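User: Before I run my own analysis I want an independent prediction to cross-check against. Here's the chain; please return only the structure tokens and, at the end, one sentence I can use as a sanity check.
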Amino acid sequence: MATHKSAEKRARQAVKRNARNTASVGAVRTLERKLRAAITSNDKAAATALMKDYMSKMAKAGTKGVVHAKTAARKIGRLATSVAGIGATK
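Assistant: Structure tokens:
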């Protein structure tokens, strides 16, 4: 347990950051699940709308360090490719 004043403050800040980061990751994962479901069901309109929200939240999480920046870029790129391929002939 923290015994110095500065260490106590750091502990409080860590709790706040943990809650913020957990909420951010949860929101991103929920959006990703919804987006993958829309891609699977070939719903281009829903997938396009969800992709816009997903890109925004994931890019912000990558910028803030909640998720590694390259992980965010990789996931955004792969899902964007999937959304663009909806309805395309194979």
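Sanity check: The chain has a mean pLDDT of 95.
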